[in-house]
Amino acid sequence: MEFRNAILKEKKQIAHDSYSFKMTVPEGYSWKAGQHVMWRIPGYEVDEGDRDTRVFTIASAPEDGFLMFATKIGELHTSFKDILLKKIEPGDTIQVAEPLGSFGFNPEKVKSLIIVGGIGITPIRSIMRHELDSHKNGHKIHMLFSEAGGDHPFGDFFREADAKLEDFSVEFVTEVDVFTGKTAEYAKANGNEAEYLIAGSPGMNAAFTKQLQELGIKDSNIVKDEFFGY
Q1: Angle at 113 between CA 108 and CA 117, to 5 degrees
Q2: Is 71 strand, coil or helix?
Q3: In this model, does residue 127 exceed pLDDT 60?
Q4: Right CATH number for 111-224 from 3.40.640.10, 3.50.30.30, 3.40.50.80, 3.40.50.720?
Q5: Is there a contact between 213 and 192 (Cβ–Cβ < 8 Å)?
Q6: How many CA atoms lie within 13 A of 61 on its CB side?
Q7: Would you place residue 226 in the very low, low, confident or very high pLDDT band (cuts 50, 70, 90)?
Q8: Angle at Cα 100 formed by Cα 96 and Cα 106, nearest 5°?
């Protein structure tokens, strides 16, 4: 696998246990909003048994002019994440492989519900940044963003997107019953006229897929992105 060199520009805490890493874009490198890649940090050794690479979604869109990923780093974390948290600094090199996958809106749909939990927000940040420059009027997008502690990563970005984009609205939730209740309310009102993008842990994705299926939503209208590296 070929890696390209990017230079770290900024390391920022974006929630109580989540951090973003912003980098330069290697010359000739390109990606699409919603894709994920493998990252590597040269010059540091991880502990025995740990991997020296991680797959993270690119949280930035091409329109940003920079590469960015974000990840959750709890009190107990791997040696790879310890390097991210405590050792690398702006000016250091982070290596990035070629982008993979596809996750985004169906251009034939005029309604979309985004169901997202915690640091699963990273592909959604990329997709909605792209939408700010290329949104097709009439495509109504509603987002339910759940974070148990109320500290929603990239929360300010989505508040600004809500204010700028007439067709986009976001609700920040903290309680599971509110999260599932609002999902059910939307699905009952819009059915298969809408598509449903789910971005969260495997357990969250499975639970919401089951809920939507039981409400009569077709599998073809359910799109999942199971985030890595959290």
Answers
A1: 135
A2: strand
A3: yes
A4: 3.40.50.80
A5: no
A6: 15
A7: low
A8: 135
Given this model, what pLDDT does residue 208 score? Answer: 98
* Complete DSSP assignment for 15-57: ETTEEEEEEPPPTT----TT-EEEEE-TT--PPTTS-SEEEEE
Q: Which residues partner with 19 through β-bridges?
A: 13, 71
Q: How far is CA 176 from CA 96, 149, 173, 181, 207, in A?
A: 35, 12, 8, 8, 11
Letter for the amino acid at 97?
A: A
> DSSP label at 121?
G
Q: Looking at the whole model, is its pTM more than 0.85?
A: yes
At 67-112, the pLDDT tens digits run 999 999 999 999 999 999 999 999 999 999 999 999 999 999 999 9
CA-to-CA dists, residue 212 to 104, 119, 183, 194, angstroms: 18, 22, 8, 12
Looking up tokens 């409400």 gives 215
What is the Cα–Cα distance from 30 to 37, expressed in whole angstroms?
Answer: 12
Domain 3-100 has CATH 2.40.30.10: yes
